UniProtKB/TrEMBL annotation:
It comes from Paenibacillus lutimineralis. It holds the Pfam family TRAM. S-adenosyl-L-methionine binds at residues 321, 350, 371, 419. Residues 39-97 form the TRAM domain. Residues 10-20 have a biased composition (Low complexity). This is 23S rRNA (Uracil(1939)-C(5))-methyltransferase RlmD. GO terms for molecular function: 4 iron, 4 sulfur cluster binding; rRNA (uridine-C5-)-methyltransferase activity. The keyword Nucleus does not apply. InterPro entries: MeTrfase_TrmA_AS, MeTrfase_TrmA_CS, NA-bd_OB-fold, SAM-dependent_MTases_sf, TRAM_dom, U5_MeTrfase_fam. The keyword 4Fe-4S applies. Keywords: 4Fe-4S, Iron, Iron-sulfur, Metal-binding, Methyltransferase, S-adenosyl-L-methionine, Transferase. Its EC number is 2.1.1.190. Residues 1-38 are annotated as: Disordered. Gene3D superfamilies: 2.40.50.1070, Nucleic acid-binding proteins, Vaccinia Virus protein VP39.
Amino acid sequence: MKGKPYHKANTTSKPNSKNSPKQKRPTPDRVTSRDSAEELRAGDRIVVTIKRLGINGEGVGYYRRKAVFINGALPGEVIKAEVTKVENRFIAAELKQIEKRSPYRMDAPCPVFNICGGCQIQHLSYEGQMAAKEDIVREAFSRYAGLENVRMKPILGMEHPWGYRNKAQLQLGMGPDGMIAGLYAADSHQLVDITGCPIQHPKVNEAVDLARKVLQRLQIPVYKEKSNQGLVRTIVVRFGFQSEELQITFVTSSDKLPKQEQLIKELRLAIPGLTSIAMNINPKNTSLVFGNRTVILWGEDSIQESLGDLEFTLSPRAFFQLNPLQTVKLYEMVRAAAGLTGKETVVDAYCGTGTIGLWLAPYAGEVRGIESIPEAVEDAKANALRNGRSNTTFYEGYAEELLPRWVKSGFSPDVIIADPPRTGLDSRFIEAVLRTKPKRFVYVSCNPSTLAKDCKDLLDGGYSLEWVQPVDMFPQTSHVECLILMVRKE
Ligand SMILES: C[S@@+](CC[C@H](N)C(=O)[O-])C[C@H]1O[C@@H](n2cnc3c(N)ncnc32)[C@H](O)[C@@H]1O
């Protein structure tokens, strides 16, 4: 990199701002051979001021009004970077040198931080992470909903933002020293061994490591995608923070598990507190981890966990929030947003094991949950019984199919809660919401971009956005959970 000139952008300008560098001739010390971003080529050197973090944790700045994404760069930093890609809408560049360092930059505690794709911002202090996440949310509402000044409540963070995850889902593979359990490196198919992940609960780390050693000792073959040989693809460990129960699920390419009895015996001996051992069979090479069939190999078919005074039963495939401490804060905000008086009919769409609906049930007249995974619906029903929430009913199906059907037959809820996956809401679901016109629509999301896009459709359909509440469910990563309250305009 020595000897190559750095092309400086006017980094104080926002894209589209009136002071855009486009109108100015570069001053002599900024003269470059590239007058426009379009002329940049891979290998060019540029200097960029980082304005904010992008949705994947990359630093985002501008060069001649075009967005530049630089992995590892932090807001407020001035970065010397080498262009790696020039696309129509953005430039990707590699961090070469930090000219001005963020006061929030720190050494990442995890030894594999630079290669593991799990966390993106361990090198940013927690204070810096909170500010950056608020910015990510603001940016999403500005970009996708056209809202420049959303009423945003301060992000709800964690007192101790480590060891918070109750579940690990790790790919198995073979490394030079034997079997490894890990995550793929960012943008690659290279498996990074993860031992002692600092955002996992220590009990989860311990169970993963012990189970991996047992598999290796018994020479249970690891699945190899390339050759379509072998058996165990993924290990999933879930730990109940309150119950201290442990569930291990092996995702396998077939149900022909060798040395099954010995495996169970050794796992039980090696891992104290083990409650359940399951095998989920996924014969297909898809991006979905789980297949449709789960077999309980030993112990209980589910583990128990509690949130507040509610107790839950969790089967291996059922969705359950990963950060139980923050989940309680999130659900309390949902309750505040729902504004219940004890009489309302509430829909809990995308309800998982029914957690939000059950949380709200004592404050509502009736709650109907919708969930697409059959086992989760069964769990939700069992959870309702167990917790005496007799005013709840849980339905198996797709929210975008069931809600329109209910609305067509005259069902008219007062409050709809939606907590969809990252892809956001289906347009058929939004249409049904707009047709049935609940007074309040509470949207919980782990993806600010799809949240803001869907919010725009609801704004256009006669709702106002009352407030946005970010909740830090995933410290050390660039992910941010958000909750919004939308109210029907009269
Ligand atoms: C983000 S989780 C939320 C679960 C729950 N609200 C909670 O807090 O634990 C989304 C849930 O939606 C379910 N799901 C995904 N697509 C769905 C669809 N089209 N209709 C209904 N449920 C769906 C998933 O199985 C998952 O349980």
